[in-house]
Write a structure and sequence with these properties.
Helices cover about 45% and strands about 20% of the residues. It is α+β, with helices and mostly antiparallel strands and about 180 residues long. The protein is elongated and about 65 Å long.
């Protein structure tokens, strides 16, 4: 049995939300990066006279850079909105209990408790700052690594690896996330 209590900080939440946004829009981000790099290469080749000079690649790159900045700003706005919202979970103690047959999440101060089978977990992503435990595409539990000891973090990683197998994505286990869709 693995049992601990954590609290989510604003920086933990921000990190998880940004990562989730990148997962959901991964293809668009890869395309944007490719267009920006391609435009830079085209402009460099144009400067050396290898290709005819054209402003079109610069306009495309600028459009994608603006899109990237707007997407990041929209994400940050959502984070700040959540932080200001009444009833957010930032700084609220959340107790987790992991056994071979059940996972329990309890927010004692609010009288809320959820219990589910480990097989019901859709997937878990481990980032440098947080474990993101998806129970559905719309419900994720954030477990900040900064609030765990190294042993607890290792035990939790081992628990997820044992129970979720290929649905656990960690920086410690090199596995592709390309085929997994959360939306």
């Amino acid at each position: 049995m693995l049992q601990f209590t954590t609290e989510i900080t604003l920086s933990d939440y921000r990190s998880a939300v940004r990562y989730g946004m990148l997962l959901r829009t991964r293809g668009a981000w890869l395309l944007a990066i490719a267009v920006v790099l391609g435009a830079a290469a085209y402009c460099a080749a144009g400067a050396f006279g290898l290709v005819p000079a054209s402003a079109l690649p610069l306009y495309l790159a600028a459009a994608y850079l603006i899109w990237m900045l707007l997407r990041l700003a929209q994400t940050e706005r959502g984070v700040l909105r959540y932080a200001k919202a009444e009833g957010n979970l930032l700084g609220v103690p959340i107790a987790y209990t992991f056994t071979d047959t059940a996972v329990s999440v309890e927010i004692e101060s609010r009288g809320e408790k959820q219990r589910f089978d480990p097989a019901a977990i859709v997937c878990v992503y481990e980032q440098s700052r947080v474990f993101m435990m998806y129970v559905s595409a719309d419900q994720v539990f954030l477990i900040p690594r900064s609030r765990l000891t190294e042993r607890q973090s290792g035990d939790l990683r081992a628990y997820f690896a044992r129970h979720l197998k290929d649905r656990f994505f960690s920086r410690h286990f090199a596995r592709s996330t390309a085929g997994l869709r959360l939306k």
